[in-house]
Design a protein that fits this description.
One of its GO terms (biological process) is epigenetic regulation of gene expression. Belongs to the histone deacetylase family. It holds the Pfam family Hist_deacetyl. InterPro entries: HDACs (IPR000286), His_deacetylse_dom (IPR023801), His_deacetylse_dom_sf (IPR037138), Ureohydrolase_dom_sf (IPR023696). By secondary structure, the protein is of the alpha/beta class. It has one domain: 3-Layer(aba) Sandwich (Arginase, Chain A), CATH 3.40.800. Helices cover 38% and strands 16% of the residues. Helix 1 packs across helix 9, helix 4 crosses helix 5 and helix 7 runs parallel beside helix 8. The N and C termini lie close together (7 Å).
């Protein structure tokens, strides 16, 4: 299978305060492990700058303009208690959105089977009009809207296995029958949303919360019982993965106990859904993961599964 890796050096230029978990070293750790010879067959390309038109399908232009005005020329600008912008943040955020859209193009035109956008800052906490949780633009939402507007898709699914609930993605698609959002996450945990009772106005929100301390067995059961049957019924024309790896047992920001094999298993299960309904089309977008070793090993398992099926 052919897999595309989208990356860019600007992701290193989004600087956060000393000690902040969402740091440039995350990208360096991923880059190092993907240099291994077993990843040499992967196709690689630079993430382009996303257009404001593409971003505005998920976020009002007034919000985009507000963020642009906040972007500092020097120093840092605080957006909320744990979300800050540096002079390099604006380009990194634009390329995160652009990389997600390029991944959609390459996959839906069958130039590659699937794609992984190794971008930062992450995106799934970004609501329609609110930055939070290290996130500015919701890259998965931008990609879904792009697939619908540019490629004419009717049904897109976003599946999120980050340890934190993707409140932003849920907010954007709460009343949308054409996009299904499915999430496994620890609960209780930041941001406090994601109860199983939160199903959206069109019943296309599927939350499968996990209790602190749970591991691979509970994670796989949540997929098997709550998520995969709903995806089968929805029959998406594109599968987008919000690929957060902070549910790994090593991660300092979560309390779940997943290991690399669990992420590989979930990836394979979602590829099976895509093989059945989406002509194999899978786009994966990096979200969280803050222990560098756990992140690197999990990304390697995820990408190797994308490559080999």
């Amino acid at each position: 299978m052919s897999t595309l890796l989208l990356h860019h050096s600007s992701y290193l230029d989004h600087l956060t305060p000393v000690g902040h978990p969402e740091r440039p070293d995350r990208i360096r750790a991923i880059d190092r492990i993907l240099e291994h010879e077993k990843f040499q067959p992967i196709e690689r390309d630079l993430a382009p700058v996303g257009t404001l038109e593409d971003i505005a399908r998920a976020h009002p232009m007034s919000y985009v303009d507000h963020l642009h005005r906040l972007a500092p020329e020097e120093g840092t600008a605080r957006v909320d208690a744990d979300t800050t912008m540096s002079p390099g943040t604006w380009e990194a955020a634009l390329r995160g959105a652009g990389g997600a859209c390029r991944a959609v193009d390459e996959v839906l035109t069958k130039k590659v089977n699937n794609a992984f956008s190794a971008s930062r800052p992450p995106g799934h906490h970004a609501e329609k009009e609110r930055s939070m949780g290290f996130c500015f633009f919701n890259n998965a939402a931008v990609a879904a809207r792009y697939a619908q507007a540019v490629h004419g898709l009717g049904r897109v699914a976003i599946i999120d296995f980050d340890v934190h609930h993707g409140n932003g993605t849920q907010d954007i698609f709460w009343d949308d029958a054409t996009v299904m959002y499915c999430s496994t996450h620890q609960m209780p945990l930041y941001p406090g949303s994601g109860a199983a009772s939160e199903t959206g106005e069109a019943n296309t929100i599927v939350n499968a919360p996990l209790a602190p301390g749970e591991g691979g067995a509970a994670f796989r059961e949540a997929f098997d019982i709550a998520i995969l049957p709903r995806l089968e019924d929805f029959a998406p024309e594109l599968v987008i993965i919000s690929a957060g790896f902070d549910a790994h047992a090593r991660d300092p920001l979560g309390g779940l106990n997943l290991v690399e094999a669990d992420f590989a298993w979930a990836t394979r299960a979602l590829m099976d859904v895509a093989d059945k309904h989406s002509n194999g089309a899978v786009v994966s977008i990096l979200e969280g993961g803050y222990d560098l070793e756990g992140l690197a090993r999990s990304v390697a398992a995820h990408v190797l599964t994308l490559m080999t099926g």
